[in-house]
């Protein structure tokens, strides 16, 4: 049992065995002293009982009328949510590759302990140390109030700063858990992948990670400062009598922030949250920073799913048609699948290739893969509305399936082993089983049955 008590900058933490693999849960890495302010490192304290999940960020819906439950039913939502989870083959002085997972959820929901992913597999089957984490979401993290009140000038891109604080904690402590702080790979799916892409443009993150893998994400998410201010003004307008100033908004109960979000959701259909180019945390668009060589020593794995955009069928029956028209699709009478393929190309394939082009320009190796399979254990993929096509998110079960377990079919496990093998090839030594992307070799590697 003594090997499960580890000294950290947050104090000693006591873990437990998760299916015979040492696991520490709910370890604090930061502290939020004031709402809408940058967090500070967690204070060293007494022994932490790291046997239970820590609090997660408050969750809000992404679309009006749609509420996806992607966290455990007994999850505790709390503003003080900066904690992480670690699985390791052993806190034994080893020097294993480290994986840090940034979760999905459109920047409004999800957590580092979502039941859809089982990080255990990387410690149990790949001899790696894996970290998952919680950080601020929705208006608690992404609402920029600095142009409405100069006193909140440091409220830009708070979740990005949370993630940088997380990576600093990993750098300072992961060796105690058998991980190599000089070999850290960050990876994520969907908005988590775009968080990875955003960190590629954050100077303060340089040196805190050494490889990066983006699954259905890109390095083009941040909006302009003007758009960030417009979003904040819109949120304040919806607050009405609840809060007429940023200071008043900082003082309302959490339930009031949820109420304001839902009011705006009802009127606008969706409330967008995410990073913006603020000039300091993000001096420029991340893809431009990549092209300028900010992370030239960080090899990349960029993955897309074959029919990503078919996912929009779940949001509204006519959403694919509306998005196709908004992007000047060439044939208004095209078949539905043709419109899906056009949107997948524009929204996923082309941003992926632009990132690879930017990296290649400064000599950074990058690998491109396409996931072309619908796992039998994917609740998303087996929704009949998608017609059996591999849509956005179907690759998550393959990323976390146990290749040596009993879940899924033999093909599910074989595809999962291939996808995990590509990630671990990147994480171990920056080499995958196929040629890196180049203008002479632009065809993506396809993962499927």
From TrEMBL:
<dbReference type="InterPro" id="IPR002018">
    <property type="entry name" value="CarbesteraseB"/>
</dbReference>
<comment type="similarity">
    <text>Belongs to the type-B carboxylesterase/lipase family.</text>
</comment>
<protein>
    <recommendedName>
        <fullName>Carboxylic ester hydrolase</fullName>
        <ecNumber>3.1.1.-</ecNumber>
    </recommendedName>
</protein>
<dbReference type="GO" id="GO:0016787">
    <property type="term" value="F:hydrolase activity"/>
</dbReference>
<dbReference type="InterPro" id="IPR029058">
    <property type="entry name" value="AB_hydrolase_fold"/>
</dbReference>
<dbReference type="InterPro" id="IPR019826">
    <property type="entry name" value="Carboxylesterase_B_AS"/>
</dbReference>
<dbReference type="Pfam" id="PF00135">
    <property type="entry name" value="COesterase"/>
</dbReference>
<dbReference type="InterPro" id="IPR050309">
    <property type="entry name" value="Type-B_Carboxylest/Lipase"/>
</dbReference>
<keyword id="KW-0378">Hydrolase</keyword>
<feature type="domain" description="Carboxylesterase type B">
    <location>
        <begin position="4"/>
        <end position="311"/>
    </location>
</feature>
